[in-house]
Design brief:
With 116 residues, the protein is mainly α. Helix content is 59%, strand content 5%.
């Protein structure tokens, strides 16, 4: 994932994480999208990103998700454009991501080595 992509992903995370808990909770997403289909956007976000289904999205899940999107054939420009739109309150984009167990293991190894 490019530094610009990571920066934009973190900006969106911080905008949604209203209480600065370093976790995104459903109530926060409902408030973030309060005037733009809040339930649909929240459900789609959690369906795609909350991998352990605990009702909150931590930084690891968030970065893992955007890393997977980045490795699923989308250009940084495409992803950054969508992130910019979401930063402005636009709808959550349901990216089609490749389910790649090797990538998941690679991300885990990079984290263990402090490189991700």
């Amino acid at each position: 994932m490019s530094p610009l992509l990571k920066e934009k992903a973190m900006k969106l995370f911080d905008l949604i994480d209203i209480n600065n808990s370093h976790k995104i909770e459903r109530e926060e997403t409902l408030r973030f999208w309060s005037s733009n289909f809040p339930t649909i956007n929240s459900n789609e976000l959690f369906n795609q990103v909350d991998k352990n289904n605990n009702g909150e999205i931590d930084l690891d899940e968030w970065i893992d998700y955007w890393t997977i999107v980045s490795n699923s054939g989308y250009s940084d420009k495409e992803i950054c454009n969508e992130l910019d739109n979401m930063i402005k309150g636009g709808c959550w984009v349901q990216f089609k991501v490749k389910k790649n167990k090797k990538l998941g293991r690679k991300i885990k190894l990079l984290k263990q080595k402090g490189k991700c």
